[in-house]
Amino acid sequence: xxxxxxxxxxxxxxxxxxxxxxxxxxxxxxxxxxxxxxxxxxxxxxxxxxxxxxxxxxxxxxxxxxxxxxxxxxxxxxxxxxxxxxxxxxxxxxxxxxxxxxxxxxxxxxxxxxxxxxxxxxxxxxxxxxxxxxxxxxxxxxxxxxxxxxxxxxxxxxxxxxxxxxxxxxxxxxxxxxxxxxxxxxxxxxxxxxxxxxxxxxxxxxxxxxxxxxxxxxxxxxxxxxxxxxxxxxxxxxxxxxxxxxxxxxxxxxxxxxx
Length: 259
Ligand code: AMP
Known about the structure:
The structure is a single chain. By secondary structure, the protein is of the alpha+beta class. It folds into two domains: 105 residues, Phosphorylase Kinase, domain 1 (2-Layer Sandwich), CATH 3.30.200; 139 residues, Transferase(Phosphotransferase), domain 1 (Orthogonal Bundle). 50% of the residues lie in helices and 14% in strands. The protein has a five-stranded antiparallel sheet with strand order 1-2-3-5-4, sandwiched between helices. Strands 6-9 form a two-stranded antiparallel sheet. Helix 5 crosses helix 7, helix 6 packs antiparallel against helix 7 and helix 6 packs across helix 8. The protein starts with a helix and ends with a helix. Bound molecules: adenosine monophosphate. Adenosine monophosphate binds next to strand 1, strand 3 and strand 5.
């Protein structure tokens, strides 16, 4: 599968060096050192870029497939533009080809001493693996968790839903969190949708960082609350999301008890 996809992308982008970063059900992600035009000096990282490619699905009717590729790629790019406009940390889009399903964007994150990319998950893991229990709940980790919570609060405050919040879909660039992967993102002002987004992350933290999940989740929610500020109307919105989060947790508990 990957060889065929790499060949396809090489044919679309001749002469562009590509390194496969990940291969998911929806998209293949490549890294490249090449900007399609001229790297803009304001880019966070002017020497590294990500190319996300949605390959066609052979089992779909070609016309439907082309329409899905185009609308999903355009939807993701639009979402990223809205994030940039709202000042929410996420990669800047450099270029896109909706028809071919390509998004060229800024590369975020660094390589950790462990050799892994600096996702929120890998950062927490590398601290958990190499440091004392006290250092795992240090002020530095608390600050990062609160910043992640604040970032999600900002997102929700703009009625934007990530749709796949995990600790891998948050990347740390110089220890500052950025959101990535908007393939399942949507727009909604409903407290229920925001609560589900939070619940997905809460569960991801519980399953990948079980030892310290309670503290991490507490700090995430502290940062989330801070993003809503003290304005009465915003406070009401925050309280509504928290109420729904409790409902979603209860539904989740019921489901896991029933198996
Ligand atoms: P996605 O298909 O968007 O979830 O991306 C899959 C993987 O590619 C992510 O888990 C990251 O490791 C990597 N990735 C995607 N976008 C970026 C980006 N802008 N900067 C750095 N890594 C990225």
